[in-house]
Amino acid sequence: MQAADVLLAVLMLAATAAACVAVYAMLRAARAMDEMRAFTKRLDERLMPLLDKADVSLDAFNAELLRVDEIVTQVEDATDRVSSTARVAQEAVGAPMRVLAGAGEGLARIFSRAGRRRETEYARPAADVRRDDE
Prior knowledge:
By secondary structure, this protein is an all-alpha fold.
């Protein structure tokens, strides 16, 4: 056997070993791909019902939000009506009350002035009147 034959035998063994390693790697990769497919299938089987439930829950939540929005709108309308009614009632009662208060104040001033005049006329003694004349 010559060196070339030995080298050829070694190369053949190395190529065979490399081919075996490559086949083993391919088998492991295929097994990993099968496991990944099984995992995604299980995930899909479990995730799709959850997504469907989430979709139904979200639709129900949106419907409730619409109801709450309608209720809030009705409350706002009622509050506006009550506010305008209170304003009208305040004006209806307040205007005559202001007129009466003004009239009462005017009468109070008149009576106050008249009372002060009488007090000053009755309070002055006769001697003071004579002194003013002198």
